[in-house]
Design brief:
Blueprint (H helix, E strand, L loop, with lengths): L19 H8 L4 H8 L3 H9 L6 H10 L4 H5 L11
Helix pairs in contact: 2-3
Length: 87
Amino acid sequence: MTTRLTEPGAPRSDAAVVSPVRLRRRALKVTQAELAEATEVSRQTIIAIEQGDYAPSVFLALRIARTLGSTVEDLFGAAEPHTGGSA
């Protein structure tokens, strides 16, 4: 499962897409507040990341992944594989 980031105000299907960050955090029994403190951001930032409203910087994504004992790819990987077309 992956997180789908949406434009502000765009409808989301929360039931269809569950954040890997939220799943991992809950599996480890870590609260949003604890994760926020460990990664030096606000709880609101963690909420926004879990809801798909905010894409963290590479540095924050690394801190979150390390704190949760995971990888950036597992927590923030693309929803669909890249097919390798030209940019």
